[in-house]
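Let us practice reading a record.
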Amino acid sequence: MLSAGRALKVTIYLSEGSTHHGASTSSSILDFLFFRGVAGATVLKGIAGFGADHHIHSAGSVEISDQLPLKIEFIETPEKVNELLAKLEEMAGSGMIEVQETTIAKPAQVSKPRVPAPVHVKIEGKAKLMRIFIGESDQWHGKPLHEALVQAMRANDLAGATVYRGILGYGAHRRVHRDKPLHLSHDASIMLSVVDTEEKLQTFMPIVDQMVQEGLVVLSDVDIIKYAHRPVEAGD
């Protein structure tokens, strides 16, 4: 961990499209710094610039260039920088590396929040199982309907939801949908399953009615035996 005092700031200038051994140079350098124990590093992306080739690169609203300037910055002790510099020069290729002397006035501190010990809580009782059958291609405001439903369930504090993708089946239109080894159907059957109290599911039903334009929704009685992890709150 860094301490207050003299240090070096290293800035590595790259082109976004540059690669190192077939992988993105910026990702490769970031991985190298991480696994060599560097305290922290940041990748910054430019929106316009030019380099040694004297070609101007910019990101427009229609065209996104893959040759925009990137820079990676990190601060470390002089000893650590000297240890890493040769490898960084090799990885940066045609990029530029700048090293500046700096002073750490206040080092970053790693926060260590108290992790509450989980306890097992056993919940038993009557509940409802809701299953929603829709098509994989169904949309809701530009996003897949099943994803939107899961987000809505989470926002309405339902206990949990699972999405299943069918591999063979048919629906109201009696068209058979199947997955084949070399063909992925984009209209496979999707089933969402959620278990919660009848009161919470009935409260959620108007949202389902609004979002599911064509599909099947069923409710079933279930008996639940649920083991959940509940953090121990202060004062428990």
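A brief commentary: Residues 78-92 form the longest helix (15 residues).
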